Every structure is written in C-alpha cells, then in structure tokens.
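Morning - phosphoenolpyruvate inputs below, output right after.
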Amino acid sequence: MAKYVYQFSEGNGKMRELLGGKGANLAEMTNLGMPVPYGFTVSTEACTRYYDDGKVIAPEIEKEIFEHLCKLEEKAGKKFGDVNNPLLVSVRSGARASMPGMMDTILNLGLNDEVVEGFAKLTNNDRFAYDSYRRFIQMFSDVVMELPKSNFEKIIDEMKEKKGVKLDTELDADDLKEMVKRFKAFYKEQKGTDFPCEPKDQLMEAVKAVFRSWDNPRAIYYRRMNDIPSDWGTAVNVQMMVFGNTGDTSGTGVAFSRNPSTGEKKLYGEFLMNAQGEDVVAGIRTPQSIDELKNIMPEIYDQFVGIVNKLEDHYRDMQDMEFTIENRKLYMLQTRNGKRTATAAINIAVDLVSEGMIDKKQAVLMIDPKQLDALLHPQFDAAAIKKAQPVGSALPASPGAACGKVVFSAEDAVAFSQKGDKVVLVRLETSPEDIEGMNHAEGILTVRGGMTSHAAVVARGMGTCCVAGCGDIVIDEEKKVFTLGGQTFHEGDFISLDGTTGKIYGEAIPTVPASLSGNFGTIMEWTDEFRKMGVRTNADTPRDAKQARKFGAEGIGLCRTEHMFFEGERIKAIREMICSKTVEQRKKALAKLLPMQRGDFEGIYEAMEGCPVTIRFLDPPLHEFVPHDEADIRALADEMGMKYEEVKATIDGLHEFNPMMGHRGCRLAVSYPEIAEMQTQAVIEAAINVQKKHADWKVVPEIMIPLVGEIKELQFVKKTVVTTADEIIKKSGVDLHYKVGTMIEIPRAALTADEIAKDAEFFSFGTNDLTQMTFGFSRDDAGHFLEYYYQNKIYESDPFAKLDQVGVGKLVQMAAKLGRETRPDIKLGICGEHGGDPSTIEFCYKTGLNYVSCSPFRVPIARLAAAQAAIKYDK
Ligand code: PEP
Ligand code: MG
C-alpha cells in the first residue's frame, strides 16, 4: 500500500523529492540527534495525488495523517484537542526546492475556546495562552481562509491606541481575551460562519491550504523564474509546537552559519525574547543580534554554536536555521542550505574549497549560473527596493536595474544623456534605427515584443536592462506620454526597471554599480577546467566582441551583419541599394558599403585575436531599412536622382503581410546575389588583412547563410560565396581557409539536415526562428498570449527563453544526428537566445553540440552552466 506520511524519525536528508527540503532536513537533524520537536511530513506525492483526485485529500491519506498524529501524541505525551494537556502543532509547507514566501506558516494549531482555557491552566500563564490563540486565529484566517492579516493588525492597532500603549507585549491577558473575541466576531462577519473550532478540521483545512498554495499565482510565477516543474508538488510538515513566547526565558530566532550577503565566515542572525517566529520577520519589534544571546543565555548560545558547526560540517554548505528557546531549552525548527547573494555564493564556494570542506567540482556545482547576472549588471539598492511598489510588470528581457528619466525616442535619449541625464527609453517597440538611443539609455521598456524581439536581443548584447512587452501600457509616442497602473508618465519623469524580474516602478530607485568579487576569476578558472563545450558570443561590433573576450568568449558564434548598417552614412547606402532599379545601380550602392563592412570585420577579427568568427549574411526583410516619412523618402529620391513617387512605390512594394516569413534570409541573396558577393568580399578581404598583420593567428572566416530550408538554396548562395572568395584569395597569395555553413532555423532544414550537410561545413541552430516556426508563434507577438498559457499550465516557461526540449529540441537532436551522419566532423553550435540559458546549455551538451553562443554578458553564465553539465553528465 502506498505510504504518504512519514514521522521525522523515518526519513532522512536524501528524501527531498518525497519529503520536500524542509521535511528531509528535519528528518536528518532528528537522525543526527539534534533537539528537533517531534513531527511528521505529509509527502509531495500526497500533494500530487490531491491534484490528480480533483483537489481533494483521499480518505486513506486523511486516515494516515491521523494515525501519525496519534504517534506524535504518544511521543509528545500530549493529546491533540485535549482540554487538560493539549498538543498544539505548526503546519508548514516544504517543496523539493525552497520557494521562500510561497506560503506562510500556521502556528498554534489545535486551539479553541475550551482548549485555550486548559492550556492557560497547564502553563499557568493566561497571557501566553491567549496570545497564542489570537495568533492562531490570525494566521489560520489569513493562510487558510484568505482573510488578509492586515485586517487583524488593524484591530490590534485600535486596541493598543485605546489603551495608550505602543508594543504588543504591553497588552495583558484580559486585553488578549478581548482581542480573541473581536477576531472571531470579525471572522464571522466576513465569512458568515463561526471560526472552525474542531482541531482535526483545522488540521485538514491547513494541509489542504498548503497543497492549494502550490498553485497560487505567486508560486506559479516563482516556479517559472526558477525552472521548478509544476508536477513536483509540496510536502506539509506537522510539528509539535514549542513556544518562544512563554516569557523572558523563551525566545526565537533565525541564523545563517555565514553572512548571506558577503559570505564572511561568521555566525549571522537575530532573535527576539518572548516571541514567536513571525515576530522576527514581521519587523514589529527590533530583533537583537545573535551575538547578544551569548550574554543573555551563554549555555544556550554555546549549544547553538555547536549545532551550527555540526550542521555545516554535515551539509558542507552554509546553513540557514530557525530555532526556538522554550524555558531555557533549545529546539531546532529548520535548517537548509541558505539563500545568498551572488557575491556570497562565490566567496563561500571558494572558501569551502580552501577549508577542505568540498572540492572544486562541488564548488562549481554550488553556484546558480543565473545568479551571476547580479555581478555583471547594476542592481537596486537593497533597502530602497524593499520599500518600492511596482506599477506593472512584463518580460524580464535583459537583467540588471535601471533608473532614469523617461524619454520616448532614440534622439531624445541621446540628447538627454548628452546633457548628463540618465534615461529610460520607453517605446512601442524598438527598431534597428534606435540603436544609438538604446546605447545611451540605462534601461529600455517596450510595449510590444517578446524575449527575442529586437529590444530584447540588442539590450542583452549591450548588457543594458530591458523589460519588454508590457501590454498594459497605453502610450502616445508623439505626445510623449504613457500610462501604466493608473499613473501617467511624461517625458522627464523618473521610472525604474528591474530587468531581472520584469518589474516596473513609477519612481526613482537608486542603483548600485556591478562589482565583481575577487573570487569571481577563481570560479571562472575552475569552470574552464571542467568544461568540455565551447562558449562563443553573439557580437556585431568590435566593442561587444572585446567585452565578450574579457568575459572569456572563445569566438563569435553569430555576427548579425545588418546591425552594422544603421550607423551614420551607411543607412543611406543600404537604402540606395534597396531602391535601385538595376543590378548596376545596386552594385554601385553596395560598393559604398564594402569598405565600411570590411572595416567592421577587421575590427571584430582584431578583437577576437584569432578565435573563430562566424559572420552571418544579411537576414532581415528589407522594409526594416527604408524610410517611411515623406520628408525622408523625398531626400532619398533626391540623392538617387529618382522621382519621389518612384521611390515611394518601391518602399510600398516592400510591404509584406508576414515579413518574418517573407523576403528575408538567404532569399535575399537568391534575389540579389550581388549582396552576398559584396559581403563575401568584405569578409575575405578583412580576414586577409588581419591575417597579414598577425602571422601567429589563424584567421578562418566562417560564412553563415541564414534561413536555409532547401539544399539548393544553400548551393545557390554558396556558389556566389566560393567563386568570389577563391578569386580574392588567389589574388592575395595568402593561404586563407574559410568555411561555409548554415543556420538551422527552419524546420525543413532540420528535417533534411543530412542533405544540407553535404554542402554545409557547420550548422548553427537559430533557435529563435526555429521556435517561432515550429510553434507557429510570432516571436514578437507571443508575449501577449503566453501569459494565459502559464496561468492554465499549458506551458510553464517562455519557449523563446528556455528551449522547448520536447519539440524544438527534437528537431535539434535530429538535425545534429543527420548532419553528423553525412559529415562526421561537422561543427555544431547554437546561436539563438537560448544559447545563454542554463537549462538549454545542459541540453546542448547532452545533444553533443560543440559550442553555445550567447550575448557577451551571458558568457560567464554559459561557461559555468557548460561546466556544470560536464560535471553532472560525465560521471
Ligand atoms: C535565430 O533565429 O535564432 C537567430 C539567431 O537569428 P535572428 O535572431 O537574427 O533571427
Ligand atoms: Mg533567425
């Protein structure tokens, strides 16, 4: 028969999946002989069963819970609901991965009007008994019955005011009795029924509430942010109460075995005498530093320090513990590996290695790659962000914190920033023309667009904070005004963005600059000792390439050449090229672009110091480059010696109903081979020039043809590339090798990868387009409706951020296998935005890719994630 409930003494620390983190650790501490109040855990399987059964607790599980309650009564020597010697319990959630703040704890469960009387007699302490009872009513109402705590706080405040006192502790037993009455009356008024007085009902309702909380919106959001699957479920811990609020010989506190902000090896924590756990966190009274305990109760302090050391030794990691002192007796209520800042994570990992507690592999595994973001980007001042209330939220498109004055155009961003103002650029969506303004902005906020939209991709590349796709914003870019969350913002008003959580604040919140801890380099060195897969970067400019090199990129996996076309005079030349009527005209315009593009490539080769560089040929639909304002069109017509109507007609003719599936990628080179010819010339000549300067480098250009779906497309464009390249190389006399490969970003390319590999020397998986085309979701519009998919648990995460391994991943695996069958030494990489996502990186490693490529600021994350994958899967 299935078993759903376990006494703490039946479990152990390895049973996290079944007992949740808290339950497993309580069991482990019990086994280590530590003073843990007796209790039992209702398993995560009971939770999944609760959902499978249509949100009911099956009778056999209920029966098992009550059997374990009997065992608990025997051990405790008290009885649940007994008037003379009552057992009170706490009920707390505990998932496999810790999810702080998902659900509050319920303490003092088992009290009712009769039991509280007996409890008061037994403890000879009326005040304590009624204080416990009022706390229970408050917590139970809040957590189980969804009557917010603040309602009750209001009653407490009224009573304190009436009595003319400031602290809860100044209320006496009679006051608390009165408070209980008022709480219950309020409950009845709100709920229409009496407060549940049967302890067994209270217990079952509390267990259900914990199970329910697994699916509250907060928890769903938290899981999505932290890659926690929804089918894990949470366990419930039922534990005998010990009391920190019996008087001055009792207290409660929380402590970390090392400082969770800095990692310093020193006990860190706080406690309150005569209090229950919530008082420490609630901030109503100011807790004392844990060091003070040494003076108040030296023997308890010593015992606690002994336990802390033993726990650190046992878990070999920094511990976060809760404890209670009841009448001078210490109890441990929880231990877990403590949450820590990125700086602390790095410092603790390095310290534990030098202390001989763990080895380098364990240190590398210990750090959450996503946490590194916090070291590489500015963050909000911790105290200020705690007080701030967001006015809205959207996609966390590029991490970091930004605070600045609102501007509505790229030009204004430049103008304001040149005056010395920090700005946040707010746009309906960004386009390549906005690049300079984006570069001057602290943060970027868009109304439309998903995780792979222009704003998201470019901001990540720059390391600039970006929140994308905030559909709740109503914006008028012309009038320079937007509204969100009931507030109106004009140009010059301050807003703040959190690109890590997607939250938007309608006020100025101070930021602190990124700071790399001294141990960061050490950890990065260790990752490279274990890493087997290469890490490249997506970079389009020498500046980004240099930044990525500093972060340890071993090459460029994607250089999007079109991003170079927007600076200065270049846009004019490309517009001329697009509006040309004849091949000759087009070639003339392309000739203007050639030296600029060659110069850029030289800069990139120099920055990459001989590492491989993959350059992708022109990809976006041409309408992205042309002007749409009448004045601009007239100016272009004048420059080209053409009629306005003629140029306007060409531009109108570029309109497509679905440009993402239109005239773009290699289709452009099929229509206009002279574009591929010019780009080949620029790539090869730049490579020759740089090779000549650096005899010790081996410059091997990799030319990548985008959006191929058919081998003949690739062959067609490749012919232009090879003919052009070979002729230039021959003339130069330099022994230059180059490669021609393709992106795999159209499902048909993945399906026919064995064919395509006959002509492609490398594949780079363009998982942005591959996701778009496999799902049939627009990468720019999906953000609008994906939220409903998360709410309805159809998808758990954004497929444009975390690769859909089941569907899109299957195409990647298939293409990798087929490609290698045709060409065993084919080089395989990924350059979609997923290349910087840790779970996707693990997948890429398992699939056997040679490298991942991601934006410069994600390179350290990718190095760490790739090392972790190698350690995990190479046992
Ligand atoms: C892709 O499609 O994954 C890709 C890298 O190309 P782009 O984002 O430029 O379309
Ligand atoms: Mg693409």
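Note: The pocket of magnesium ion (ligand 2) is lined by residues 706, 745, 766, 768-769 (CB under 6 Å).

O.
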